[in-house]
Prior knowledge:
Helices cover 40% and strands 23% of the residues.
Amino acid sequence: MEALPVRFTIDLSVERACALLRRELEREGFVVAGTVQPEGEDQSGAPASLALYAYHGRTMQEASRADRRVGLYMLCAVTIRPQGQGASEIQGVSPSQLAGVWGGRRLEQHAVAQRQHFERALSRLEFDHAPDESAASPRRRAA
């Protein structure tokens, strides 16, 4: 199993990207467990970055039957950083590797299921808000 490092840039401010990311995660069945500012604030008082920690509700419930300590290593993490004028970089990591190490085979299938949900949520955000290649190209929306 891999830890799924994901990194892409979208044409949204950090705050707007955070709100839309939260919506996409919740749409996919995730519960956002917390949001922090790991790098504090910039000179203007805006967050220098935001980090969201989330878990997929149904998958977490199923995984907790296999190992009651599952909450310690089944959180997905996404960091949003400013990237130029009005853009943000999204970096996400699924906990598949930790679940495999600490939970062994008992949690592997749950970690894979959570990773798939996580990938879908991030893919929709990336697809819908990727920087335009050209102003004339039509923008499609993810399903």
